């Protein structure tokens, strides 16, 4: 296309000329992979920043590489090694970099990084969490001279900011696994002297390119795509500049090309340029549908392209209203995981290749999770981009610990949030910005909102914090462990289940016969607090899966469609076992639905069943918890997780009847005797129609080992840093996995690869050991490629079992000091769930009957607080009789009363409910994570009375222990009154449809 002719036709002549040398022509490569060819020394040395320093004895590494990553899962988080480590790299600039701008981008340094170029210090980065960039232009030597970059790092837990003496709140031994040095990617950017800036605010004070969509028409697949790019003129002459934007779909087809307005930039001036175009036939990004476009904005100066910014992004519409989250005009209930931001693996920590981030994060989607809430610290860019590809919604924190702070520590949090928003605002998977892992003050919330409004006003993201239940500023909120409801901003639980269970333990009937509560009963938290009895956390797989389903029920019961005040869901902590705060006898957190090698536990499949849908269930499913390889005399309860209405169990074709249903999704079959063969669960709907089934068959005796590989799509890279997962199973003669096998496996790795290792229960968790047991018949190890193309050979042997061998072929990649192959390049998106359905995501189940007033002789001033949609306010009777009467907006036949009573998980209240004086309910309320639904005798009326008819009872039916070791009392307040109290946080009345 002749752009000169087109521009003339548009009347955009008159571009001011400047020297071609000062600008340079657009290079095909503007961003380089700077990960290869580093040298590492653990420990401080003098003069390591100088070019003449001899680093020949240092260890050669390719980034990302944390110098202490080999300790991941081997030691307690608080025992990870800390100290000084140096990284050095020698490189040449390309010829075309002459008279250009050169920037370096670090995705992160832990905790502190002093950056030197050719002996001169060019920057000090200290927050340990966020990406940062530096302008290296004036420090570099031109081609063909060599340059040396040296980075001194310090990952001391007690590191203090040099200028202020302040520590960083998020440098916390409970949750922020301390993988030191350069554990993330590094890039080099070469740009003309009139250029689009980078989204790296610290040091550079620039905001980069912002791509967003407006004017959505979801049914017609239309939206306006906007590109707002910050442009800087570092020449001595004024220039006229404009943006030329190209939008390319996932098939490589250009779907749009358009120009922005021409603008004059004076010398050393920075200005934002914009280009917009309404587009049709768009594919909108959605849950499990990581559809992405490549948006390239070229900067035209003097009718010549001199710079480009490439943004991989997706377009989606969001709204946060009516207590619900809307994605592409469809309500989506949050169900997913609170995951440690380190997202680590054994032996390699967080420094994994990009495809492994995709593999891990896609498993969350495959378990039917739709949200990952990264905990406490901003996730690294690799995970952020991975969630874009796999279609996983993200909640992005900045950095904090467990409370609000003041002074410099608060300033650090706002600075980090600013930088994180600027850096990640083009990533469509981010829907929430989390301002704190604990409630923050309204002034602080207002500050965070202002940051969002300044730097991401059009991104369709809500900003809030944990709790914030009565905030007038926050755009979402939600407690930890408890359920909240709202008819205004959405509330979703930031952590609703903290239980732990090692994958090795099936149940108490299977070796090693793990009984409920075994392990960790005298555990001391790394923060020094004691958990006197942590037995409630320590499950086997059966109990852990059941607990996960039980805890979810309270949220599902209050889902969208159940009234004007609803729960918007919640996230289970955590997805994969983590090298962070723990309560069991192992030195790592085992709350995951998959183990550290991402092998699923039974809870993974349970979540697959109960979360299959945006709100209501899309497809009925069933999962039998456990295995079917017991000793012949075993008799045990069998639990089936199912979204069917009725479940029938069959053993070797013989029906054992219907299961006892509880918590909607659990079906229990008592005292089932084991018989070798098959066990099958069949689910039926209310009409008796079969809708789903699951079957487990008995495996024969162990016969052989079976190896399979899980590799990077497109092939394992020969870059001395790529990894392949090797799964080993013990199988019978027919190839069926033997679920109770615990054989020791010996691995041999040869060819163009090295052994890395896996994890299992035992000495040092078998970290780095070439002999490792299978658990429940399966385990995995990792192998690493060398930098030579070839074949990695892996052989596995075990006593009395047939051995197996497998090979992994590696492929060539650019290993240059300035590599043109970027880490996440060409990785496919996960599209299995398809575009957002056009149908409603839920069916309304009942009608809300509004309350217009309340009367009581006990504390009348607070009566309205019991139905004010504020979960931090409540009514209680004080010194008077525990009785309150509600007036409804209209006469209605009430059939359900929903209550949130203070002390919800530890107190039971004997109450009576009357409608127009007629008794409709007289029982003791159950405990819950917040709300209880009481079915009452349907009676038509306009006044409903609730009264306490006895003294509340203590209950430990829900045994959840806080991080402090104490059981939270759920809103109960101290009172000096001798009268029995009926503290009502919220009350709601419903009638049938």
From TrEMBL:
Domain Glycoside hydrolase family 2 immunoglobulin-like beta-sandwich residues, every copy: 214-316
The Glycosyl hydrolases family 2 sugar binding domain, residue ranges: 72-158
Keyword set, alphabetical order: Glycosidase, Hydrolase, Signal
Domain Glycoside hydrolase family per the UniProt entry, residue ranges: 718-806
Keyword Lipid biosynthesis: no
Pfam families documented for this protein: DUF4982, Glyco_hydro2_C5, Glyco_hydro_2, Glyco_hydro_2_N
Family under the similarity heading: Belongs to the glycosyl hydrolase 2 family.
Matching PANTHER family: BETA-GALACTOSIDASE, BETA-MANNOSIDASE
Signal peptide region: 1-22
Protein name: Beta-galactosidase
Record-annotated DUF4982 domain positions: 635-692
């Amino acid at each position: 296309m002749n752009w000169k002719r087109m521009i003339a036709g548009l009347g955009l002549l008159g571009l001011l000329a400047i020297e071609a040398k000062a600008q340079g022509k657009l290079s095909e490569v503007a961003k380089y992979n700077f990960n290869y060819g580093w040298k590492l020394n653990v420990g401080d040395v003098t003069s390591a920043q100088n070019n003449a320093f001899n680093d020949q004895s240092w260890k050669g590494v390719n980034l990302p590489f944390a110098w202490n990553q080999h300790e991941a899962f081997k030691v307690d988080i608080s025992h990870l090694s800390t100290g000084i480590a140096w990284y050095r790299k020698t490189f040449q600039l390309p010829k075309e970099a002459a008279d250009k701008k050169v920037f370096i981008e670090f995705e992160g340094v832990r905790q502190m990084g002093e950056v030197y170029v050719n002996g001169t210090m060019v920057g000090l980065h200290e927050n340990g969490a966020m990406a940062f960039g530096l302008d290296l232009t004036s420090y570099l030597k031109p081609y063909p001279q060599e340059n040396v970059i040296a980075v001194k790092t310090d990952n001391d837990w007690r590191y203090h900011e040099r200028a202020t003496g302040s520590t960083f709140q998020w440098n916390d031994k409970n949750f922020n696994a301390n993988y030191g040095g350069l554990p993330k990617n590094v890039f080099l950017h070469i740009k003309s002297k009139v250029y689009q800036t980078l989204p790296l605010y610290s040091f550079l004070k620039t905001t980069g390119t912002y791509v967003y969509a407006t004017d959505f028409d979801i049914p017609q697949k239309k939206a306006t795509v906007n590109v707002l790019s910050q442009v800087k003129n570092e020449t001595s002459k004024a220039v006229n500049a404009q943006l030329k934007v190209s939008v390319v779909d996932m098939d490589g087809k250009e779907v749009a090309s358009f120009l922005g307005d021409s603008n004059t930039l004076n010398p050393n001036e920075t200005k934002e340029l914009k280009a917009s175009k309404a587009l049709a036939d768009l594919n909108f990004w959605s849950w499990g549908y990581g559809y992405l476009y490549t948006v390239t904005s070229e900067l035209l100066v003097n009718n010549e392209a001199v710079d480009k910014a490439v943004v991989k992004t997706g377009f989606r519409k969001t709204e946060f209203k009516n207590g619900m989250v809307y994605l592409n005009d469809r309500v989506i209930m949050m169900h997913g995981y609170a995951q440690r931001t380190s997202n680590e693996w054994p032996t390699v920590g967080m420094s994994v290749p990009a495809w492994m981030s995709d593999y891990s994060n896609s498993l969350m989607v495959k378990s039917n999770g739709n949200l990952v809430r990264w905990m406490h610290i901003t996730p690294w860019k690799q995970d952020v981009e991975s969630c874009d590809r796999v279609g996983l919604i993200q909640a992005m924190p900045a950095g904090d610990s467990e409370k609000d702070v003041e002074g410099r520590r608060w300033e650090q949090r706002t600075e980090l949030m600013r930088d994180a928003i600027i850096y990640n605002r083009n990533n469509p998977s981010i829907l929430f910005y989390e301002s704190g892992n604990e409630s923050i003050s309204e002034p602080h919330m207002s500050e965070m909102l202002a940051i969002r409004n300044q730097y991401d006003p059009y991104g369709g993201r809500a900003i809030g914090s944990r709790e914030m239940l009565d905030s007038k500023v926050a755009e979402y909120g939600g407690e930890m462990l408890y359920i909240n409801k709202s008819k205004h901003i959405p509330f979703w639980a930031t952590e609703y289940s903290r239980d732990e269970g090692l994958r090795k333990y099936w149940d108490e009937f299977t070796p090693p016969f793990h009984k409920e509560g075994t392990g960790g009963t005298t555990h001391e938290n790394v923060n020094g607090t004691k958990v006197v009895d942590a037995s409630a956390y320590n499950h086997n797989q059966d109990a852990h899966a059941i607990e996960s389903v039980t805890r979810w029920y309270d949220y599902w019961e209050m889902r969208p469609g159940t009234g004007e005040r609803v729960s918007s869901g919640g996230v289970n902590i955590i997805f994969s076992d983590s090298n962070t705060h723990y309560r069991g006898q192992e030195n790592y957190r085992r709350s995951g639905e998959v183990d550290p090698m991402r092998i699923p536990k039974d809870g993974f499949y349970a979540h697959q069943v109960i979360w299959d849908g945006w709100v209501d269930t899309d497809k009925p499913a069933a999962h039998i918890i456990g295995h079917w390889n017991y000793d012949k005399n075993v008799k045990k309860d069998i639990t089936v997780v199912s979204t069917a209405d009725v479940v029938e169990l069959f053993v070797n074709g013989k029906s054992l009847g219907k299961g006892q249903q509880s918590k909607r999704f659990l079906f229990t079959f008592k005292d089932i005797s084991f018989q070798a063969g098959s066990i099958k669960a069949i689910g039926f709907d209310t009409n008796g129609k079969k809708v789903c089934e699951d079957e487990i068959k008995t495996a024969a005796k162990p016969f052989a080992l079976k190896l399979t590989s899980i590799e990077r799509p497109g092939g394992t890279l020969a870059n001395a840093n790529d990894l392949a997962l090797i799964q080993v199973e013990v199988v019978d003669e027919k190839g069926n996995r033997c679920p109770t096998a615990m054989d020791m496996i010996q691995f041999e790795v040869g060819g163009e690869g090295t052994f890395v290792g896996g994890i299992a229960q035992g000495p040092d968790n078998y970290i780095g050991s070439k002999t490792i047991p299978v658990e429940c018949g399966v385990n995995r190890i990792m192998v690493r490629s060398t930098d030579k193309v070839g074949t990695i050979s892996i052989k596995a042997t075990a006593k009395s079992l047939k051995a197996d061998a497998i090979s992994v072929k590696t492929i060539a990649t650019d290993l240059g000091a300035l590599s043109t192959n970027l880490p996440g390049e060409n990785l496919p998106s996960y599209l299995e769930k398809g575009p957002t359905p056009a149908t409603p995501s839920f069916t309304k189940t009942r009608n809300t009957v509004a309350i217009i007033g309340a009367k009581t002789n006990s504390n009348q001033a607070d009566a309205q607080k019991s139905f004010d949609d504020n979960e931090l306010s409540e009514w209680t009777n004080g010194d008077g009789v525990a009785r309150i009467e509600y007036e409804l907006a209209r006469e209605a036949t009430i059939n359900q009363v929903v209550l949130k009573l203070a002390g919800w998980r530890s107190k039971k209240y004997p109450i009576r409910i009357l409608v127009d004086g007629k008794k409709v309910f007289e029982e003791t309320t159950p405990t819950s994570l917040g709300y209880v639904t009481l079915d009452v005798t349907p009676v038509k009326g306009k006044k409903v009375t609730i009264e306490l008819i006895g003294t509340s009872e203590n209950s430990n039916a829900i045994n959840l222990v806080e991080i402090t070791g104490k059981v939270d009392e759920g809103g109960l307040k101290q009172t000096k009154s001798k009268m029995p109290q009926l503290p009502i946080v919220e009350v709601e009345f419903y009638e049938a449809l």
